[in-house]
Amino acid sequence: MQRTLAGFPASGLAGQRVFVRVDFNVPVKDGKAGDDTRIRGALPTIRRILEAGGSCVLASHLGRPKGKVAEEFRMSPVAARLRELLPGVSLTAVRDVIGPEAQAAARALRPGQVLLLENLRFEPGEEKNDPALARALAQLADLFVQDAFGTCHRAHASTAALPGILKPALAGLLVEKEIHAFESLMGAPQKPFVAVIGGAKVSDKILVLESLLTKVDAILIGGGMAYTFLKAQGIGIGQSLCEEDRLGTAREILQKAAARGVQVLLPTDHVCAERFAADAAARVCAAAVPEGWMGLDIGPATRAAYAERLRGAKTVLWNGPMGVFEMAPFAAGTLAIAQTLASSDCVSVVGGGDSVAAVMKAGVADRITHISTGGGAFLEMLEGAEMPGIAALDPA
């Protein structure tokens, strides 16, 4: 475990400028920040620093400006929403990252105040993990807090190089929560431990599946990737999504699961359509998918079987939708997983943008044990990859 903000003495924050790497990469439309879940996620860390008498230098990326200033990716909409969420707090937003305006604003910070820097990715050195950019950022503050879990798998200047320079380098409250959730999941989970894995492609989840085979008692597979597994077993899939070059991989995963005594459940029926469209006529197909049709969601028998397996679990990991849940005719399978987890007393951990969106859509987020804020970061932790943004923090 890393050294944490929660364990850092409040007296050590008083009068200090704290550089907080946050993840404010939120949707922006018509000049306004949309879903503010990520902004809200950083508020406990920000408030802890301010209440201890410190000040915050907040830094985030937004979109993919590719090292150039792009007006549509400025942080001003985020600043406007942050002011609404921090009433009574003096917040300054500058239009540069390490330039004169940012330097002057950082020097002027007083206890209880917040500075929001411009989009980190306006700087070409950010994604290159440029040590010169990291040194310039370090001049703006006295210590470092990492609270952007969603970027911890990236070796960028603000996530990897900076915490190697600006000390102490601590895990923020959000990152600490993510680490604890992962350790409880992959360390000594309560058994039975069941994983629900969906999404489009087997190739995106190979390392995750291989890692899970050493931990779980069962894997429930859905989404487009299920059809690669089904075809690998000789079951007809019609026009369903399939990675022909991964049929061998699917067979190997099934063989490894059998050798380890891990149960793998695949769809036994499907919600099918003749075309990929929200207004397509849908029908339930048992066993094989007919020629000319494509499977776009798990069917009712599969939903019931998966729900039954989940009700017997003590720990559940869910990553990836069961179907094209953005389209109403093909959303039932994914929503059923969300509702089953919500009604269970198991330890439930949900990660990945689509799975989190499904939990939100089902209105059950408050009944999930932990919802990860990281998409790619969450997957890489499951794969067992080192996270540069966490490895750079001070050890406990």
Spell out the key features of this protein:
396 residues, alpha/beta, Rossmann fold, 2 domains, 6-stranded parallel β-sheet, 14 helices, 16% strand
Structural commentary:
This protein has 396 residues and is of the alpha/beta class. 35% of the residues lie in helices and 16% in strands. The chain has 14 helices and 17 strands. It has helices at 37-51, 76-85, 100-108, 131-138, 157-165, 173-186, 206-212, 225-232, 247-260, 300-311, 332-342, 353-362, 376-383, 388-391; strands spanning 17-21, 28-29, 32-33, 55-59, 91-93, 114-116, 143-146, 169-171, 193-197, 218-221, 263-265, 269-273, 283-286, 294-298, 315-319, 347-350, 370-371. The strands form 4 sheets. The chain has a 6-stranded parallel β-sheet with strand order 5-6-4-1-7-8, with helices on both faces. A 6-stranded parallel β-sheet has the order 11-10-9-15-16-17, sandwiched between helices. Helix 10 runs parallel beside helix 11.
